[in-house]
Amino acid sequence: MEYIRKQFYTLKNRILEPRKFMQVLAGPRQVGKSTLVNQVLSQLDIPYTIEVADAVDPKDSDWIHRIWEAARTTMMLRKIKEYLLVIDEVQKIENWSEVVKREWDEDSRNRVNLKVVLLGSSRLLLKKGLTESLAGRFELIRMPHWSLQEMRDAFGVSLDEYIYFGGYPGPAHMINDERRWRKYIKDSLVAPAIEKDVIMTSNIYKPVLMKRLFELGCSYSTEILSLTKMMGQLQDAGNVTTLAGYLEILDQCALLAGLQKYANDEARKRGSIPKYQVYNNALLTAYKGRGFVTDRTDTKAWGRWVESTVGAHLLSMADELDYDVYYWREPSRNKNEKDKEVDFIVVRNGEVTAIEVKSGHRGMNSGLPAFVEAFGPKRSFIVGTGGVSLEDFLSSEVEEVI
Q: Considering the entire predicted model, what is its pTM?
């Protein structure tokens, strides 16, 4: 039996409603967008067509018009009053949003009951097209990476396996063969995401640099490292502005984020040193892991994987729930004392939540009480040893804890 994600019910119910808005299903690669659409279609009586833009020439914007017109013609020939057109990877087509707007508005004027579902894996391009051309004509359904609860229910993944192998459903059955699993992550997941969702759809002048930045950033997940120092490990690194732009694109594609330091003013936030954070721990493991047993029994290494899992969990719903994730660090004036740090700061509607991750080997630093004293957050707590259990936190909805 196939696993049903909660977005299934949202999409199904909206398709069954009278035609008013296009439905846009957005999320990173390999989270099950196409699978979910097929699951929904199997339970509907509405006739439909599915078209995929992957192999279409990006400059052939007339392709959208042709498939749309074919759907209209099918409705006419079959003498049916309702039809559904599904377009996958629509953002690959240049000027897609303008063409979609024209076709949708024509159907609205002529009262053609042609419903539309759009799928896309590039959040950056989708967002641009939706806000610029399709405002007021769509509803967005976001599909994040899979949570611990979903991976456990669907595949029987344990907490430790989720921490190490992350939340991609496709290779879940491969985790007992780590070499095969790692090749799948790099070849079948990362390569298409970088080459098709990032390089082909953005102004990337140095694609090799983008790939290397991504690989290094994944291996540095949970670490704070300036882009200037990162340049020292990259050949043909360009400049800091280029790297910052590439990192923003990776963030928009839900692959890798550069968290900024929390501060009271925006200028200090934007000018801070980034803390790298993967959206899915599979990416950290693919580029930094030495093997499950080796890393699980290394308390220092495992602490890093645990922290990265908490960060990925927080990032997964940031766009959906409209909050921002930061870190905080205050350099110590005493050379014999460690810097004061808090792993994650979440800001939603002006309210602040401070979260410190503790995984056994890490002694509690003075960062959390110092942050509380300085900023007075709405909530502050520890995840892990001496606080909220890691399993409880990862099994919860983020909205419940911020």
A: 0.91
